Amino acid sequence: MSPKPRNRDRLWVYLLSIGLFVGIALLALLVTRGYAVDWDSFAIQKRGVIVLKSDPDAAVITLDGKRLDKRTNARLSLAANTYQVTVQAPGRIPWQREIGLDPGEAVIEEIVLFPESPPRTAVTKRPVERFAISPDGHRAAAVVRESKAPRRQLQMLDIGGSGSGSERFGIRLNAVPSRIAVNDEGFVLAENAGRIAVYAPSGKRVARISGGAGGLVGDKLVFQRKSRVIETDRSGGNARTLASSPRRWTSTDRRTYVLDRSGKVIGIAPGAKGVPVGGTDAIAAITAIGPDVVQTAGRDGSFGIIRGDTFKSIAAEGGSGVRATLSPDGAFVAYRTSRELRLFEWRTGADRLITSLTTPPDRIVALPGGRYVLYRRGVELHAMARDGSNDRTVTSRIGSEPAMFALDRIFAKDSRTGRLVRIDLAK
Q1: What pLDDT sits at residue 26?
Q2: Is the preceding peptide bond at 56 cis, omega within 30 degrees of 0?
């Protein structure tokens, strides 16, 4: 046989080997760059990425009914498609969602796996008639029932740390106050029948004055007597008039806000002169909703928020019917109208629809970071992701409007025992 055909065969084998090597290397490079081969169409497609972050972590991932070896916080490189995803852990409510993944898209889900039976810690030993929590969530004031009816007692408790109530003082009451409040320092205000009493952290009564709608503002006491809004020391001395015959007024932990006759809001720090809040030229109503946070309703039906001396108009309508709260980190305003539950980001001004409503919830709050919104409906407390998915009942037996600070600090009256309890959704 002539050597020429043999050399030609070797050349073809050599070229095929090089071509195969280059093809495999190119395919491997494309895979590392996030591409995949669709063997049905023999097309090369850009893959997408799903990252599931969960608290607690290392939870089980199920994709289209198939349990994966990877756990949460891992990176899942997948072909563009729609997937049914479930994340679950022992003793936790499963998280489920349909995730659509486009070529080259990265989807990141931050998931809280709520406990099926969240622990409750009793703050009071006896049933409560009324309670208040300090703005920092570390102190509570509660009117409790004594064993011999109709006796009542005003208690102030430290509720930091584990959350169980360490009683600082108890005061016998002749009547249940119509309103109580406690500040971060531990001063307690009790208001009833046009009289206001203020108690120091030691339990000593430091003031008893005539007036109504009082508030502890910094180191001052603010209240209304007849047509005047008055500021005094917490002992009731050194009085000064903040406003005469205002249209409306309200107080927060840090400021008093007065709505004057022109429709402008004036912010007054303790012991200081009033400063007009910019942009509030046509306000019809103001309501305190948190530490130094005020909700406004405009004459045109708009709704807005004042934080400190800054005003932002949020919605063009529904002002008088909106209920809003500020997230504990101050980054988000969760609010509901008669038809919608929405989330407003304070820094960027982004306003997003969470879900449409058939029955408005009684109480809402956005968690720090805005990932979830908690809301109360009847005796149930729900959690909903910011995109409206995974609406879950996370606990029940809520017998009062809860005070919510974070997943591990929710205070409410237990509907079965009547006690003030701390509910921990983070355990």
Answers
A1: 53
A2: yes
Q: Which residues contact 125 (CB under 8 A, 6 or more apart)?
A: 144, 419
Burial of 356 (0-12, 13-18, 19+ CB in 10 A): exposed
Coil, strand or helix at 339? coil
pLDDT for res 193: 85
Give the model's pLDDT for residue 19.
65
The DSSP code for 193 is T
Of 87, 112, 137, the residue that ends a domain is 112
The CA distance from 40 to 22, in Å, is 23
Name the phi and psi angles at 20, rounded to 5.
-65, -40
Cβ neighbours of residue 239 under 8 Å, at least 6 residues apart?
230, 231, 232
Under-70 pLDDT residues of the chain: 1-17, 19-45, 148-150, 161-167, 169, 318-320
255 falls within a domain = no
Residue 176, pLDDT score: 87
Return d(Cα 238, Cα 30) in angstroms, integer: 77
Last residue of a domain, one of 112, 131, 162: 112
- The CATH number of whichever domain residue 100 belongs to comes to 2.60.40.10
Q: Does residue 131 form part of some domain? A: no
Of 292, 196, 198, 295, which Cα lies nearest the Cα of 252?
A: 292
pLDDT value of position 300? 87
C-alpha closest to that of 93 among 335, 347, 412, 392: 392
- Say how many C-beta atoms besides its own lie within 10 A of residue 289's C-beta: 18
In a domain, 268, yes or no: no
Domain around 15? 3-33
Structural domains counted in the chain: 2
CA distance 257 to 346: 20
What's the gap between Cα 222 and its chain centre? 28
Compute the distance between CA of residue 84 and CA of residue 62 in angstroms, rounded to an integer: 8
Give the chain's radius of gyration (CA, Å): 30
Q: Is 229 helix (H, G, I), strand (E, B) or coil?
A: strand
Residue 189 lies in a domain: no
Residue 174: phi and psi, rounded to 5, are -85, -25
pLDDT for residue 39: 47
106-112 and 48-55 strand pairing: parallel
